[in-house]
Amino acid sequence: MIVLLVIVAIVVVVGLVVLGMYNGLIRLRNRIESAWSQIDVQLQRRYDLIPNLVETVKGYATHEKETLERVIQARNQAISTTGVANQAQAENVITGALKSLFALSESYPDLKANQNFLALQEELSGTEGKIAYARQFYNESVQSYNTKTQTFPSALIASRFGFKQREYFEADDTSRGPVKVDFS
What we know:
Blueprint: H1 2-58, H2 65-79, H3 84-105, H4 109-113, H5 115-150, H6 154-160
Helix pairs in contact: 1-2, 1-5, 2-3
């Protein structure tokens, strides 16, 4: 009788441990989904600002059509992209295109002084900061989740219930550093 009670107690404890690990993995997975939603909100805000910014620049830099078209093309491509790695790559293209657009303002003093342009630039700059924070939070959430799915004993639960590794949202080398603009 005592042996049976001990076996039942062990089964209950093991069951509770497995349940706790499973629920922990679910919480981490949901945190990643929430973090991705926050990135998505900020990216949509960025996409909404870009056409207004381009329209403002058009009035001052009419012969810079190629730069303006690159910005709009990058925006449209990013809107239709899915998946973390593809989205990160598309966002890197937008970042580079926006750097070129802002570099144009240095050559057009009237544009640089335009209140609408300055307000849009400031709002976009704030949005970029929010995107950076959201990316950081997302990547930290992915790191916690991936660590949990790879460490023993939760790795056993993760593999048994199909918890897969998640991708980080990473910038590539082309989106880092200053942009080179040639006006010749």
